[in-house]
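Weekly sync, protein design subgroup
Attendees: M.S., D.O., the rotation student, P.L. (late)

Item 1: inverse folding check
M.S. brought a backbone from last month's batch and wanted to see whether the design step gives back something sensible before we order anything. D.O. pointed out we never logged the input encoding, so this time it goes straight into the notes. Structure tokens as presented (218 positions):
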């Protein structure tokens, strides 16, 4: 191999903040979640995506915390971790507010497509159940191989195209809402449930002609 005095410089990174064992009553929350009404996910073109029952469903409400007995406790606990991630991991001095919260139900064998959560800043997913043997997983994708996908000789942060996270009961993942992700196929014989959150910054954001104040009354 030819030698060079060139040196690689890292420019940008993406990150997911993971919390294990959030202080919630997972079994109680799972029961509350299972009682909510779910609907098929419609594609943007309005076509049915669930004809063979192989796609996840989401709750009819995207404000499920208002309809759950544990809603306020969930909001408080998850917001606490999101705030820590913003201050200590993502590195911003700003508040946050959970706006939309919905449940997902993935029947055995179901898969969904890569997607982002438009119009929000951060997103989070909490898992009220999941054992090691269940292999409940979520996949993130960078899009690095959208145009060219040559054989990778050595995986690193520059060429990494996708990451698969195995999730367990009590896990919470917090990530930028623009990060592409999907629920990996449910390999078990039972329904897989999770709760997703869309988050906005709260308070003073930016400076000068980009200054904005987001205040939420509820
Ligand atoms: Fe999602």
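Designed sequence read out in the meeting:
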């Amino acid at each position: 191999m030819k030698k060079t005095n060139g040196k690689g410089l890292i420019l940008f990174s993406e990150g997911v903040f993971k919390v294990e064992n959030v202080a919630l009553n997972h079994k109680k929350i799972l029961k509350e979640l299972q009682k909510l009404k779910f609907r098929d996910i419609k594609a943007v073109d309005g076509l049915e995506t669930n004809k063979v029952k192989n796609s996840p469903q989401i709750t009819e409400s995207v404000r499920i915390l208002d309809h759950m007995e544990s809603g306020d406790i969930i909001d408080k606990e998850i917001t606490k971790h999101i705030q820590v991630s913003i201050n200590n991991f993502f590195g911003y001095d700003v508040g946050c507010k959970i706006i939309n919260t919905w449940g997902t139900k993935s029947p055995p064998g179901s898969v969904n497509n890569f997607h982002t959560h438009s119009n929000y800043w951060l997103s989070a997913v909490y898992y009220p159940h999941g054992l090691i043997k269940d292999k409940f997983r979520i996949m993130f994708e960078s899009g690095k191989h959208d145009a060219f996908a040559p054989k990778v000789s050595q995986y690193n942060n520059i060429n990494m195209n996708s990451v698969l996270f195995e999730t367990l009961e009590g896990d919470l993942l917090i990530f930028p809402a623009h990060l592409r992700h999907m629920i990996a196929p449910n390999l078990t014989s039972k329904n897989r449930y999770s709760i997703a959150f869309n988050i906005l910054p709260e308070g003073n954001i930016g400076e000068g002609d980009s200054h904005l104040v987001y205040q939420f009354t509820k």
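Discussion: The pocket of fe (ii) ion is lined by residues 115, 117, 181, 196 (CB under 6 Å). Residues 112 and 137 are 12 Å apart (CA to CA).
Action: P.L. to compare against the previous round before Friday.
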